[in-house]
Amino acid sequence: MSITRVAAWLITIGLILTLIVVGKSYLVPIFVALVFWYLVNALNDQFQHLPLGRLRLPNSVTLIMSLVFIGLGLYFISDMIVNTVNGFVQESDVYLPRIEQQIERVYVNMGIQRPPPSISELQIGQELLANFALVFSGITSAAKGIALVLLYVLFFLIEQGSFPKKMRALGLDMRSSTRLAFVLKEINTAMRTYLGVKTLTSIATGVLCFAIFQILGLDYALFWAFLIFLFNYVPTIGSITATALPALLALVQFETLTPFLVIIIGVTVVQLLVGNIIEPRLMGSTLNISPLVVVLSLILWSMLWGIVGMLLSVPITVAIIIITAQFPQTRPVAILLSRNGDVNTRKLKRPGRSRTEREQEIPLEQDGKVA
Predict the structure, then answer these.
(1) Mean pLDDT, rounded, for 58-73
(2) Residues 230 and 86 in one domain
């Protein structure tokens, strides 16, 4: 590879990263809207397959049902978060003395002779109130952002009906049209599979953890279960964070260490069972991503876009692998990002031919050209 090509690649990557950082406030709502758009279409497909006999609901009706369903879900989630934060503020006088008792217990068990610090000395109360204020501010800004996201989703839903017509109007030759249709189909399939399976397994994880919290009598069990559901979308770090937070509350709420240990062990077992056994079976080989790349992309996108970047790191990486695998110049990027280096197993179908020819699948050759 010549020095000129290397320099061109570096400049291109630098410009893309600059655009991602500078345009964060504009790009993040669009990417989040794309995720909601996939969820709306997935719900729309499920509603259209409801067991109603010969009756089939119109597409416009099922789309409205999907939007209403997601809107109600967002409303209940925001209401639950606000009520939970209010509950923490109101019961801070109960939790703060318990924190002092736990600190004193640690000092006694470790044999430390000096008196333990008080809550006022540690300024924990002020820190908690400051964090709660940040949470309220975050909820307010998120509510404003959701309105913009839902507007983008509405535009995507309006545009998706005319997209096939625009594809035909591009006037591409057969090879370019086939390749473009193939890439879009692969991205669509991978995104739907990932979001569908991840949502299903996250719900299962949240329900099982909610049962554990309810049996123990943990405060705000529904909120912690939702947090586990949400953080399950974040690879590796999400599971650890979602386990630590309710465990810390159990350490403060209960007098003994038993609930704390039950939550640590129980939630970890649930996440290992769902994440390492059930989820790979449902996901199959759709997401051909290296585990190291998953972690690195998580770090990169969290640095660029924060929590939203963590949630979107895997879908963005999947799209990059699928797109770069279609062209000889970028095929090495897809191979490096993939789990096993095999990015040539997909097949294309040649459109515009006879029925016999359409049924003959066209493999992608090693040089990236379509046969």
Answers:
(1) 85
(2) no
